[in-house]
Amino acid sequence: MTRAIDKVQDCNTMADVRRNVNALDDILVPLLVERGGYMTQAAKVKNNPELVRDEDRIETIVARVRERAALEGGQPDVIEAIYRAMMEAYIAYEHRELARLQAGGKPRE
Hints:
Elements: H1 14-46, H2 55-71, H3 76-102
């Protein structure tokens, strides 16, 4: 298995760095949008604001991504920080989606 860190290209200029980061962003953004769609689904399924934050699930995800980061040659602390921030943003989004749905809004596609 090729680790993610082993795919990093040697860059000699900031233009090289930015080109590679932009290429990765083009992959990451659609995946994050897709992940967000599942937060809408979660709001629909949970249908209760008290169920939105699930601390056990958060810690399960953190443990999983830390392990995956280490296997990929990355920095588990950095990945954990990114995931915790992302999950907080998605929890806030899920609360908004739940409120919207409960107010009679149609489920998002």
